[in-house]
Amino acid sequence: MEKAAILDALKKHFDLEPLHSKVLVVGLGSTGISVAHYLQQMGFKFAIIDSRNKPPLIDEFFEQMPDTPVFTGGFDDAAFKVATHLVVSPGLSLNEKPIMKAITNGSKIVSDIDLFACSVNAPIIAITGSNGKSTVTTMVGEMAKNAGRRVAIGGNLGIPALDLLDQHADLYVIELSSFQLERTTALHATAATVLNVSADHLDRHASINEYAQEKQRVFNGNGIMVINADDPMVCAMQDNQRSTYTFSIKTKADFYLSEYDGHDYLMHGDERLMPLAELPLEGRHNGANALAALALGVSVGLDEQQMCATLRRFKGLEHRMQKVAEIRGVTWVNDSKATNIGACVAALEGYSRKVILIAGGDAKGADMNELAPVIKAKTKAVILMGKDAQLIEQAIKGFSIPIHRAENMLQAVQLAASKALSGDSVLLSPACASLDQYKNYQDRGNKFSKAVMSLID
Question: N or C: which end of the chain has fewer CB within 10 A?
Answer without folding.
Answer: C
